[in-house]
Amino acid sequence: MNAPVDSLPPGLTPEQLRALQRSPRQCARHGFVQALPFILVLLPFGMLFGVVASDAGLNLPQILGFTLLVLAGASQFTAVQLMTDHAPALVVIVSAVAVNLRMAMYSASLVPWLGAAPARDRAWLAYVLVDQNYALAIQHFEKHPRLRVEQRVAYFFGTIFATCLPWLIATLLGVWIGNAIPESWALDFAMPITFIALIAPMLRSIPHMAAALVAVVAALAFAFLPSGLGLFVAAPLAMLTGAAVETLMERRKEARA
Amino acid sequence: MTGYGDGTIWAIILAVALGTYGLRWSFLGAFGNRPMPLWAQRLLRYTAVGVLPAIVAPLVVWPAATHGQPDPARMTAAAVTVAVGVLTRNVLAAIVSGMAALYAMLYLTA
């Protein structure tokens, strides 16, 4: 070992030491390898987007426009679904952006780790900030708090080759395959099922479940409102419910402690 | 895509793209180390779980493919997707089981 071990702080595990000694290039490769399992999820999911978007009548440049410029699965599905329902453009835009509000939270929580990176790097990081990269990167940064900022940036950029890039390729494959799928396959319901599949794993706490329940009940109750406006009543009600239940539970816990 | 001009579709794509990028860039790019207020964090935590079910509920209860008539096959498929999703926490497994349930029910009720 000719690495400058003596310059490193004591009390680190061998794994943490190894992480600290990686060059940015090795960090990127490490990020890529750790993100590889996501390909299994993102490939079929991206293909589904290609299929339903071309089924909805979008042409190839428009579908690629969504995937390249928006680069956010749930939001892309939301936009296409609402367009299939003939919602007004403004409703489509507000809903599809609202689905991504969580990204502001990701952005805020990455500041302590990546805030010191050059502005240009941060601008690119923002472009490729998706659920999978975020989850992986935060885990890695917390596990190896002594990484230098360029190592963190390299790790993050490494992950996109197993997340954002497969997503793009999968969309293309989906468009290509979608044209060959007959109508009897009932793909009208692929999108609702995808949404449900995205929501179900999020129901991990009582506030989350309460929010989802209010969203469902209110969306059905306000379905008489024209052109998707019921969503703008139901979603805020659901968010308020989640926040209120969380506050209540916290207070009760404090009272008991 | 009936009902939208090419220009409108591109306007939608660009607006969603800019809005999304703005959210991703917000703190990392501009607000820096200013902490997000607690109440805002609290509300943001429930956006996905508030928006997505509200979009999906009417689609399940009144499917377009059956001209808005409630359909046992699609209801069953939705229920199976929720169950598998909650139990396995695996998005792909939930999608596959939901579609399998849909095809099985469509076959049985045909």
Low-confidence stretches of chain B: none
Q: What would you report as the Rg of chain A, rounded to the nearest angstrom?
A: 21 Å
Total helical segments of chain A:
14
Counted beta strands of chain A: 0
Helix content of chain A: over 70%
Shape of chain A: globular
Oligomer: heterodimer
Walkthrough of the structure:
The complex is a heterodimer of chains A (257) and B (110). Chain A contains 14 helices and no strands. Chain A has 257 residues and is mainly α. Chain B is mainly α and 110 residues long. Chain B has a domain at 35-109. Chain B has helices at residues 6-31, 38-45, 47-61, 72-88, 91-109. The model of chain B has no long low-confidence stretch (mean pLDDT 89). At the A-B interface, helix 3, helix 4, helix 5, helix 6 and helix 7 of A face helix 1, helix 2, helix 3, helix 4 and helix 5 of B.
Draw up the topology in text:
The complex is a heterodimer of chains A (257) and B (110).
Chain A: H1 14-20, H2 24-35, H3 38-55, H4 60-70, H5 73-84, H6 89-98, H7 102-114, H8 119-127, H9 131-143, H10 149-159, H11 164-178, H12 190-199, H13 206-221, H14 230-256
Helix pairs in contact in A: 2-10, 3-5, 3-11, 4-11, 5-6, 7-9, 9-10, 13-14
Chain B: H1 6-31, H2 38-45, H3 47-61, H4 72-88, H5 91-109
Helix pairs in contact in B: 4-5
Give the tags.
heterodimer, A: about 260 residues, mainly alpha, 14 helices, about 70% helix, about 0% strand, disordered N terminus, B: about 110 residues, 5 helices
Provide a short characterization of the protein structure:
Chain A is an all-alpha fold and 257 residues long. Chain A contains 14 helices and no strands.
